[in-house]
Amino acid sequence: MATANCTACGRQIKDPISIKRGMGPICYARYMAELDKKEQEEEKQLELLPFDDDIICRRTLNGPQFNIPQRFVKHSPSGMEWGYGGSGPADFALNILALFVGLEKAEELYQEFKSRFVATLPFEGGVIKKTDIMNWLKEKGIKRGDDWLEDIRCHVQG
Ligand SMILES: [Zn+2]
Q1: 73 Cβ partners below 8 Å, 6+ apart?
Q2: Ligand 1: distance of its center to the CA of 77 in Å?
Q3: pLDDT digit string, tens, across residues 75-129
Q4: Are the C-beta atoms of residues 52 and 68 closer than 8 Å to each other?
Q5: 158 vs 155: CA distance, rounded Å
């Protein structure tokens, strides 16, 4: 009788079907579950909305959608969020500010920005206006001209 070893755990397998797929039934079930999970996670990675200087977020059947990428993951590996004061909104705030003022300055300001702009967004989504962000930053003593939007667009696409 032919035997082989499971490619996942190394145990001996004898069942012809197991030998053919190279895994015992338990490892195979685990492998398929992993594949499923991976697929679901990939589906969750929605395309970005187009970026036109204002920050946009909205809910879809597949989850939250944004027009900026989560370039920095500090609090929430499972993604950015809004409408409350938790870790997902903290990462949204950090990533918005990092676009406007760079990561170092963003680290100083993002919790305040979160309370002011991100936690207050309606659950279904909304817009944070570029001009509101610029004015808020001006209050914080940070002034930059419109030329800096070029930078931002570049980061959003990259
Ligand atoms: Zn196995």
Answers
A1: 91
A2: 30
A3: 999 999 999 999 999 999 999 999 999 999 999 999 999 999 999 999 999 999 9
A4: no
A5: 5
How far, in Å, is the centroid of ligand 1 from the Cα of 43?
Answer: 28
Query: Ligand 1: distance of its center to the CA of 4 in Å?
Result: 11
* pLDDT at residue number 52: 85
Q: Give distance in angstroms: CA of 8 to centre of ligand 1.
A: 5
In the reported structure, the alpha carbon of residue 29 is separated from the centroid of ligand 1 by a whole-number distance in angstroms of 10
Distance 41 CA to ligand 1 centre (A): 25
State pLDDT tens for residues 38-65: 887 776 667 888 888 899 999 998 889 9
Q: Identify the pLDDT of residue 38.
A: 84
Distances (CA, A) of 99 to 27, 71, 90, 105: 44, 9, 14, 10
Output the CA 36–ligand 1 centroid distance in Å.
Answer: 18
Cα distances from 141 to residues 2, 24, 78, 94, 148, in angstroms, run: 76, 64, 33, 18, 16
The conformation of residue 12, written as its DSSP 8-state character, comes to E
Map tokens 């879809």 to a residue: 60
